[in-house]
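Figure-free illustration: sequence to structure, shown twice.
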Amino acid sequence: MDFVWKYLSLLGKDLVFFLLGFLVFYIGKKVKDWLEPRKLDEELVRSDNGALALSLSGYYLGIIILFITIVSHPGDGTGLIGDVIQVSAYSLLGVVLLLVSQWLNDAFILRGIDAQEEVYENKNLAVGTVLFGGTIASSFFIAAALNGDIGSKVFPGGLGLSISPIWERTLIGAILSVVFFLIGQLGMILFTFYYQLWIPYKLKDELESKQNLAAGIAFAGALLAIGILLTRALFREFDSIMQTGILLLLDLCFAFLVIPVLHFFAGRVILSGSTLKHEIAEDQNFGAGLLEAVVLVSFSAIIFFAV
């Protein structure tokens, strides 16, 4: 009957982290409610704002992605209390970084577009879809940056601070995670400028003036793809900051080569009877945008797990 007691013991630990996950989600929701310019409940229920629902869904899903990744690698096994402290600290930091990433995405990825106006006033589903994809993409490399206990690997002897070793390791890991987050976010912003060089239509016009949902879905798929590929370096066995930084740069260059190839593959093979420019920019074909996004995300996931 030992296995029963072991099961109950693990179930108790699982319950602790389930409640912690609920608390992190609730805190993230309340902070988001406070930061938004309007009351979210009224916009969602009374105004039936689908664009806002898309944006919020990306944020909420991003929080869950963060928490699941962090709780699956809580640290170096210092016990339940140590794991709870580290998971709590990293999860709350992850929520903060996710909010920062949304601000950066609004400012740079949707450069020239007033995201708040498009979401709240125009209920622009195309922009809402991009916000959905961009936030989840950011959550991928934020989660990877906060994954594990890299602080103890970089500074195995600590920093000599007059605080608990658990808090010291958590602090070091948090600082390094912020650095990797900024590198990943910069990579995603650079990709956005690069993306607009080779797509056969003007992205800003499609998203803002035409509210082209097909273009929004295709772009969201590209953001998810770059997020997946940038995450590869952070999930490898950590050896040094320099090595991880170089691998991030190599993965970014690799993504710059692979994603356009997948884009043209989707256009020539999946939509062999037409072109992506015609289907997305002219016909605003929702299905074409979705198929392109699926191709980009699917093959990026294959690269992540297999290459």
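We now fold a second protein in the same way, so the two outputs can be compared directly.
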Amino acid sequence: MNFEGISLKKNFWRFVWPSVVAQWIFALYTMVDGMFVARGVSESALAAVNIVSPFVNFLFSVSILFAVGTSTIVAIYLGQGKHLEANQANTQNLIVSAAVSLLITVVMWLGVNPAVRFLGATEATMEYARHYILSILPFAWCFILSYTFETLVKTDGYPRFATIVVSLGAVINCILDYLFVMVFHWGVAGAGVATGISQMIPVFLYLKHFLGPKAVIRFAKPSWDFGQLIRVVKIGLSSGLTELSAGITVFMFNHAILRYIGEQGVVSYTIIAYVNMIVVMSMAGISQGIQPLISFYYGKQNHEVCKKLLRYSLAATVGLAGAAFLACMGGAQLLVNVFISKELTELRAYSASVFRIFSVSFLIVGFNVVGSGYFTAVERPKESLVISLGRGVVILFAALAGCIALFGGEGIWWAPTVSEAVCLGITLLFVRGMAGREERERIEDGIPAEPAGR
């Protein structure tokens, strides 16, 4: 793992683009199952897949927690030249992640009926939901380990290989979904098994990498450092909550829209939520792409390079945010027309209108996501957690309540922009405070500014 033999800007793009593409591919996983189930089974089966989706979201949030926490610690160790400690951390993460996935599997298997009722299953969707979740449970370890290993492979200096493996998993998912649902008629269970297998194959490919001759990060006898495990959880918690908060956000919006606008508003929000997921995951791709680089240079105490990488990521965020905003403003009606039949002219017009309002938040969201990721990479989990919880739950809930109180139901569509703007102010305060502390420490220690790299 040698980040210093290539120009800093080239290294930045070498890590960011594969990470962004990987996020787009992960977004497809949730959409492909639904598409085949809707066409091959029934609308009730599709509803069941959507009902169970928060559990899948929970699995990915656990995976991200361990992935971000472990990869940050491993990258810092490598930056400090502590290869044995990095390998021990990697091995401990593998064992703990596998144990957690086994615990989740057993608990959910024993309590599947109350679990699906809690998730919202009705009489019409109960059996579909049970079959889908039971078909996924044997592969829970794959969901958790696949993303953890993907992140560590990037940290090992092979982001392109990680992207190829993720892409292969997505292709396998599409093929198996078609075979199991449309050809073999296995129903929702077939969709669940297809997704599970498409997660399992990448796990073994990543294991082959870590056991191969090119890997710098390897497996070693773990030191069983409980303090390090707590450190992993603290570092990765904000990123895990960012993933989990997506489901909480949809839950809050659906309830508010049903109460103040009605069911047609939920149709409009469903379309918006698809696009919002792609935009937010794109920003998360930038954030997670720069994490190994920043953690590596942070481990070497080269703060100037860390700041330069942050500037690169903010520039990329501006480009992506601007492109997303302009595309949504100009193409809102076209996108809405894909989902809503031409007979519903009023709903089409309303959906396009509120879509444009919601898309203003796309101009801001990336700065908060990247800011949270930066604080994670430099081991400042408290700041990262405040940003993640703020934009995903606390500030958003307050903004939603405030906008409804001031503007009624139509205020719902402005709540994300208000929430992201308030959170951006907090992010800027944290960045300014950290920069001031680092400058004071540098002056007190008499350390000259480091070269910022090429």
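Summary for the second example: The chain has a mean pLDDT of 83.
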